[in-house]
Backbone:
């Protein structure tokens, strides 16, 4: 529910043997936790309200100061196993989580091993509730994102090196006679665009006609700045190629000849194909904002978009609705057919969302099999109708099996809407989550509306 988990109020002690009186259900739960903790690459842990560890994966044990096994962490806080700098960060996040019950996310740069080697982790914390709805502790998982961060840093450094190399080597140069608009270019420039040097003829008019519509205004403004000043001007833009596609170019230009009245006569510059860098930037952007499996917005980006849409809604007094959606009996699907089939179900459901909902609706994967949808300019009646269409569309889908009948699945949906100018995203999510809980408690495969 909205990034939070309800579990039986039992002591989590990941021992290999079960205590006397432990039920079969509890034994199975502890066995599953033990297997997960023994095999995960992530840093997983449980804590109580006193910020003390009650369980941890071996991966987390390995990055602490002196613990050798998870038993060494039990009853200790971050201040006893990490540096005070990072313990302060974790304590502040956990205190906020215990007070508000909402999931917390923070990128930090802690020491990842006992040799002092630093790296980045994506640290997420989720509240654990008892059967009375009280927060009794938290569940945390941190993932090493050092490689992504290093890739981003390397990309920035590489870009600067490339730009300096272009200026020094003067690759793919052009030479513009301003008065006539005639342009002389190097063979490399022709080849970038898919032409042979013999067939390519350029002019200022031809160049302007082949600018990407979204970039044309900025490029022409840069051209004007260049013709009015004595310093080089650089810009990145898209230009049409011979086959009708688009290539990303980095350009640096400078006027080198002037009339007595400071009228530009001649401009020279260089171009470089940066399409691959732009592709890599887009891939990194996708990793930052899009859920890798379903290709919908991840939780962080969904919340960012939702906050902006809510602000617009309140500013212009427009209606706004939100869905919280959960796949019914998803664990049974994974247990019966394996996680590969479970992943296929998640992808299929995301595809159904995209084909059933409007383009303006904002879809996000909140966690696991739980999704959220924000519906701009939609009142509660319209939202309920949309939710019913979505529920029916999901129920009508199926995922084929190589051997056996196709797998069908359903969803439960909780619907809420903005009812006050004092509403915020936490309030809306909580209302929709409560409605989702009632939908599941009432038999699943149905839509429930939040009480206002």
Residues:
């Amino acid at each position: 529910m909205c990034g939070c988990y309800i579990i039986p109020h039992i002591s989590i002690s990941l021992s290999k043997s079960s205590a006397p009186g432990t039920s079969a259900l509890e034994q199975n739960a502890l066995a599953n936790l033990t297997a997960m903790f023994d095999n995960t690459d992530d840093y997983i842990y449980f804590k109580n309200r006193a910020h003390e560890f009650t369980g941890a994966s071996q991966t987390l044990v390995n990055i602490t100061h002196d613990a050798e096994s998870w038993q060494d962490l039990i009853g200790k806080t971050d201040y006893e196993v990490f540096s005070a700098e990072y313990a302060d960060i974790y304590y502040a996040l956990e205190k906020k989580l215990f007070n508000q019950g909402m999931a917390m996310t923070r990128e930090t740069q802690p020491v990842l091993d006992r040799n002092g080697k630093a790296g980045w982790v994506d640290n997420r914390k989720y509240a654990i509730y008892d059967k009375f709805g009280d927060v009794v502790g938290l569940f945390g998982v941190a993932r090493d994102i050092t490689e992504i961060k290093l890739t981003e840093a390397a990309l920035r450094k590489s870009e600067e090196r490339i730009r300096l190399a272009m200026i020094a080597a003067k690759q793919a140069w052009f030479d513009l006679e301003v008065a006539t608009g005639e342009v002389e270019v190097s063979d490399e420039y022709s080849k970038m665009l898919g032409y042979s040097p013999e067939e390519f003829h350029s002019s200022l008019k031809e160049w302007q006609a082949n600018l990407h519509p979204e970039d044309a205004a900025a490029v022409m403004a840069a051209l004007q700045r260049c013709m009015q000043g004595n310093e080089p001007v650089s810009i990145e833009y898209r230009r049409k190629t011979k086959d009708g596609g688009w290539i990303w170019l980095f350009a640096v230009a400078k006027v080198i000849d002037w009339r007595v009245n400071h009228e530009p006569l001649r401009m020279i510059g260089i171009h470089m194909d940066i399409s691959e860098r732009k592709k890599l930037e887009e891939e990194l952007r996708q990793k930052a904002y899009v859920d890798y499996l379903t290709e919908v917005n991840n939780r962080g980006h969904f919340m960012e978009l939702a906050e902006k849409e809510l602000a617009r809604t309140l500013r212009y007094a427009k209606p706004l609705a939100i869905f919280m959606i959960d796949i019914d009996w998803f664990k049974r699907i994974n247990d019966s057919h394996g996680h590969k089939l479970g992943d296929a179900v998640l992808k299929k459901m995301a595809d159904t969302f995209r084909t059933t909902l409007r383009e303006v609706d904002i879809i996000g994967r909140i966690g696991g099999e739980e999704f959220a949808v924000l519906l701009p300019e939609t009142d509660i009646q319209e939202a309920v109708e949309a939710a019913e269409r979505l529920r029916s569309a999901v129920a009508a889908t199926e995922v084929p099996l190589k051997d056996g009948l196709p797998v069908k699945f359903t969803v439960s949906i909780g619907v809420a809407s903005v009812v006050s100018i004092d509403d915020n995203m936490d309030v809306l999510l909580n209302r929709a989550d409560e409605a989702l809980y009632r939908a599941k408690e009432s038999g699943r495969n149905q839509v429930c509306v939040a009480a206002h």
